[in-house]
Amino acid sequence: MLRMPRRLTDLTLWWNITDLRNINLYENVLDNLQPPNCLRNLNIDSYMGARSAIWMNNVNLITKLEKINLTNCMEWETLPPFGQLPFLKTLILDKMPKVKWLESKFNGNDKYRAFPLLEVLHITELEALEDWFEAGVAAEDGCLFPCLIQLELQICPKSKELPSLPSNLKSLDMLYTGWKTLNFCSNSNPILLESLKVTYCPNITSIRLADEIARLAALRDLTIINCPNLISLGRYPEVEANNNCHLMLNFLEISDPSMLLMEPLRSIASLKKLSIMYNDEVVSFPNEAEQWFLNVSSSLSELQFKWLKSLVSLPSTLESLSSLQKLSIGPAVHMLRELPNLPPSLESLSVGGCHPELKERYREDGGSDRHKIAHIPEIYIST
Predict the structure, then answer these.
(1) Quick check: bond before 331 cis, omega within 30?
(2) Structure confidence at residue 3 (pLDDT)
(3) Rg (alpha carbons) of the chain, rounded to whole number
């Protein structure tokens, strides 16, 4: 066994070998690299063993760990009992395609307080991840990720949703997961969530924002992109519908303009930035969606339309956006040939990746419609 410095606090182990014929050798090497129990930060990159080191399964030997980062460990199947580490604050798991659970029965008790101090959890490209715990293992009620602030879950197509989002969670970023819905805690405490991003999640059908409108006072950034089966953002409780509760969003990013007509987005009035993007089907905005822009006319300062390859017209109501300062159109908006009348408040107009006719009509040296945008101080137009 290799003895490391007794005061070692940070350790990075990196393999530059991808020969899977020597898996036993890799496992033996890691077994014999046991660090002292004062270790705080552990990084393992490109380890080709199928299991963790023996010393990693002894909680007493790694009890002081505060941050763990496992990357490109392609053959690793079962994780050590990280949920039992009392001081662990950050856990990053990236490109570990054979891991099915964060915690397994092999690792310890059938029921325990899981990840008691964990604040940051990033999970990326764990394609086999099915559930948070192996069948037969469960956290005590209300004790799963009790301190979690930031959760990032990306490219985990088999993953199941949490029973409820952790009560202290402030940021949730999901990309291509197996989740079907978002479940908020059932108590009456405020929901601290500030940023929610749900992108390319084909199974998700419901995000119950309207149901919890009175508790979502902290939510400022919302992204919902390419979730084709999403049919509901919840329903206002009767008492809240009468109390005039609204989301106080600063930033909204969506791919489907019809989402603007769903509550609670329909009643939003405080929005500062809106991006509509990644939709190959939308051709124009229905009248109700055009009228929606009047709701945010005094607050919206930045507007983006991009990757909308079939779009032929923008909302005519953009002219009424009295606070709009920046408008970006494109790339990949190949069908838009004409701009609507734009508000006098606009300070910056950027147009790129659009139809050549649009550039011709608005070009600086003699475009037939250049006079319609001449009041804008900063203009950039390219095909």
Answers:
(1) yes
(2) 58
(3) 25
DSSP code of residue 239:
H
Q: Tell me which residue has tokens 């009424």.
A: 320
pTM of the model: 0.91
Neighbours of 97 (CB within 10 A): 15
Structure tokens at 33: 């690299």
| Nearest Cα to Cα of residue 159 among 204, 197, 126, 135 | 126
* DSSP string over 251-313: EEEES-GGGGGSTTGGG-----EEEEE--SS--S--HHHHHHGGGGTTT--EEEEES-TT---
Encode pLDDT of 260-292 as tens digits: 999 999 999 889 999 999 999 999 998 999 999
SS3 136: coil
Domain boundaries, the chain: 1-160, 178-256, 272-383
Which tokens go with 187?
Answer: 């108590």
Whether 8 and 36 have beta carbons less than 8 Å apart is answered as yes
Q: How far apart are CA 362 and CA 339, in angstroms?
A: 9
Number of H helices, E strands in the chain: 4, 21
Cβ contacts of 260 within 8 Å, gap of 6 or more? 254, 266, 289, 292
Give, as one character, the DSSP assignment of residue 212.
G
Single-letter amino acid, residue 350: S
Judge contact between 103 and 134, C-beta under 8 A: yes
Cross-strand bridge partners of residue 45: 14, 71
CA distance 358 to 378: 17
